Hints:
The radius of gyration is 33 Å and the shape is elongated. The protein is of the alpha+beta class and 298 residues long. The strands form 2 sheets. A 5-stranded mixed sheet has the order 2-4-5-7-6. Strands 1-3 form a two-stranded antiparallel ribbon. The chain is built from 6 helices and 7 strands, in the order H-H-E-H-H-E-E-H-E-E-H-E-E.
Amino acid sequence: MDNNNHEAMKWQKRFERERAARKEAEKLLEEKSAEIYQLNLELEKKIISEIEKNNEKQKIIFQQSKMAAMGEMISNIAHQWRQPLHAILLTNQKIHLNRILGHEIDDELIDSVENDIKKQINYLNSTIEDFRNFFKPDKEKVEFQLKESIETSLDIIHATLKQKQIDVIKDFDSNIKIFNLKNELMQVIINILKNAMDVLNERLITDKIIIIKTYEKDNFYFIDVIDNAGGISENILPKIFEPYFTTKHQSKGTGLGLYMSHEIIVKHMNGFFEVKNINFKLENNNYKGACFSIFFKK
């Protein structure tokens, strides 16, 4: 009997010890849970704060990029308008010159001058419309031809390309259409072209070439923009899409253009944007340059 009591007391003490240990463990678990909950709250606050800071930075970067793009576009407008304004001046002088030479100023001459001036004014209006549409942010995706959007982009900077004596070679698949943000794509195309123009000039390339082509491959639609400026240094290549990274002098570049282009293509248009160095042959001449590829799933 004594043995039984002794055994019962032993088990009771063990049970009490285990219960006390369990209560201690539960108390500790409760304390740690409270600590973890507090840490999670603080972490959540930090994450929200960092997201807000990052959003603010993104807004500043977008604004800086937009201002830089506007400056470049104003410069392009000046180039685009110079020739037609000069043509209007020369056309207008026709009447004055005929009067000095004593020639008759008849209706045919007046009509000719009027038509020539109207033609140039229509061109100026068309140019302004292109620039105005370029700066309109796309709110909705639309179906459009890649060829058409690239041609319009080239029209906008045509005068600058001509002034810098850059030969643009086009190879378009006219059948390719995508459903996306047209103006945003045009901004990116112009930015890539502007970047290629700057590099070609900085490196004093004699025969400046930019190749633009669209094609379909592996269930993707591609846009390639290739220059013959010698390519991008391998140590620079991985950083090319980073914000504020630029190889240009501070007065010539902000380092935002390619970063913003990458953001637009990847985040706004759900596409892909890559760059690599390539060697290519054109008219029996060998060249090396950078190839910027934009591609979208079909």
